[in-house]
Task: inverse folding
């Protein structure tokens, strides 16, 4: 029974991590940039919820989403001059943006953190068949599942989605077909921002203490998930994010109490093993040669 | 006087210290097929890449309908009506055949007539209709070649650039591809055909320029009977 309980929580966290992973993977797919500052999108959204404390619920949600999407668009603008420099430089630049934002939050708001008091009633639990399930778990699952499905639909069925996937698969060929790559990149950041904003809303209910590392703590395991799943394909990246979130919760329930400090150790040993066995990612088939014009 | 549809003048392309194309000039008019042949490394593909804005030429001009397009982005040049079918096919292999075609349609400057064009390419290459829902990566090499040509045509190009369309294809497939290209020519689309196999180009193109070490060294008329010695001289000097 304890495992079943853990299973429910694991699926819930996995779904959230999958959304974060998808955002990271979407941007990486289109411009081969790992945005280390993706976590700060979540942090910004959480502080937006904090500042709108006491305001009507729809206002808080809209403001938070808007802040996250706007910051994501701003990041695209900041990274724009770096298109032609080496990937290592770009990676360092995204580190810099991440730490800059974290430390700015630290200076402005301190390390203590504050309770966001957002939809606290969703933290109450109901009992079904001996399982205690918090409402936010259900809400998170539904919202996360719908968001994943909607993103998948946009990518598969819409013209913009098709162009985004084309730019991700072979940017040169996409250009030759007239795909407006610059617009596609902006779009990828906007969608990634929207996904991050939605994750923030669910996460702020589950972890109401808002600190400068609110998003960073989620981004790191999600990024690990992206790498485990396969960096350059969206579905594998999302599955990887899910797997890490899922494994985190399951491991913490399986490990005996005193051993829980080793949770991350066990998790990363698993990750390293997977990467040694399948360096291209757990959910990616045999890699095809990358074709370029 | 009306300008030639695609006009290349004094085009030079350099990669660092290596010169790939030197002062190349030629024109392709509407409904015309011009061949460009030469040995591997003669500068044929670099010429195409310079026309499509993938590489920036060091010198020279490329004009489409009288307007200089040097310095334009690749996507803008594509939308202006120049479609490149690059060497090595470049289907989006994890996309369905239908999705590949849709990408071609999205590249049109003018959405009018899309349905007609779709019907036309399906008639030209029935395989793109028959296997519409399959992954493009599952098609044979010849079918992929047909797909990329169909995809390029759906963007309604004024000039179609083909880089080695016969490469690695069985003779019967080459025949199918070229009889389809014949119909493309009849529609008034200008074609610039790059080939390593000179006889393929000379048989199809209205005239064929021979390239060696980045320069045009000779021009052959359509149906010119290729003499082995003459060709060896043109190719290798």
Result:
């Amino acid at each position: 029974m304890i495992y079943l309980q853990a299973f429910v929580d694991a699926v819930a966290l996995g779904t959230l991590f999958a959304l974060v992973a998808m955002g990271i993977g979407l941007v990486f797919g289109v411009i081969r940039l790992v945005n280390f500052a993706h976590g700060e999108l979540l942090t910004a959204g959480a502080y937006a919820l904090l500042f709108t404390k006491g305001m009507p619920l729809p206002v808080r949600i809209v403001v938070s989403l808007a802040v996250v999407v706007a910051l994501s668009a701003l990041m695209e603008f900041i990274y724009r001059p770096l298109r032609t420099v080496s990937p290592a430089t770009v990676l360092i630049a995204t580190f810099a943006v991440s730490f800059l934002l974290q430390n700015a939050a630290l200076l402005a708001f301190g390390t203590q953190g504050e309770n966001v008091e957002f939809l606290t009633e969703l933290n109450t639990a109901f009992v079904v068949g001996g399982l205690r399930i918090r409402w936010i778990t259900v809400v998170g699952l539904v919202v996360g599942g719908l968001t994943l499905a909607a993103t998948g639909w946009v990518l598969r069925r819409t013209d913009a989605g098709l162009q985004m996937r084309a730019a991700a698969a072979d940017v040169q060929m996409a250009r030759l077909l007239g795909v407006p790559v610059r617009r596609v990149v902006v779009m990828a950041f906007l969608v990634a921002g929207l996904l991050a904003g939605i994750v923030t809303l669910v996460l702020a209910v589950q972890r109401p203490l808002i600190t400068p590392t609110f998003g960073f703590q989620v981004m790191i395991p999600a990024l690990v998930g992206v790498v485990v799943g396969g960096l350059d394909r969206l579905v594998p990246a999302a599955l990887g994010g899910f797997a890490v979130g899922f494994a985190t919760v399951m491991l913490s329930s399986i490990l005996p109490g005193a051993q829980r400090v080793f949770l991350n150790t066990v998790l990363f040993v698993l990750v390293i093993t997977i990467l040694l066995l399948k360096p291209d990612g757990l959910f990616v088939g045999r890699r095809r040669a990358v074709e370029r014009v | 006087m009306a300008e030639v549809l695609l006009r290349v003048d004094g085009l030079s392309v350099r990669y660092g210290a290596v010169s790939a194309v030197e002062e190349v000039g030629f024109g392709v008019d509407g409904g015309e097929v011009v061949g460009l042949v030469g040995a591997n490394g003669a500068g044929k593909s670099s010429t195409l890449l310079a026309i499509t804005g993938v590489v920036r030429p060091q010198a020279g001009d490329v004009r489409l309908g009288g307007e200089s397009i040097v310095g334009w982005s690749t996507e803008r040049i594509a939308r202006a009506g120049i479609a490149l079918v690059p060497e090595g096919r470049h289907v989006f292999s994890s996309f369905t055949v239908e999705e590949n075609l849709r990408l071609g349609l999205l590249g049109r400057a003018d959405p009018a007539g899309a349905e007609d064009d779709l019907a036309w390419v399906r008639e030209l290459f029935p395989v793109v209709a028959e296997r519409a829902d399959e992954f493009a990566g599952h098609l044979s090499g010849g079918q992929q070649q047909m797909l990329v040509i169909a995809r390029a045509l759906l963007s309604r190009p004024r000039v179609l650039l083909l880089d080695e369309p016969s490469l690695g294809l069985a003779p019967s497939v080459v025949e199918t591809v070229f009889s389809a290209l014949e119909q493309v020519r009849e529609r008034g689309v200008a074609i610039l055909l790059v080939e390593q196999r000179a006889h393929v180009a000379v048989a199809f193109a209205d005239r064929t320029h021979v390239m060696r070490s980045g320069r045009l060294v000779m021009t052959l008329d359509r149906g010119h009977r290729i003499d082995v010695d003459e060709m060896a001289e043109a190719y290798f000097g």
In short: Strands of chain B lie at 6-15, 18-28, 33-38, 59-64, 67-68, 82-85, 159-163, 190-195, 207-212, 215-221. The interface with chain A takes residues 49, 52, 54, 73-75, 78-79, 83-84, 86, 88, 90, 92-95, 99, 102-104, 106-108, 137, 151, 155 of chain B (CB under 8 Å). The longest helix of chain B spans residues 171-186.
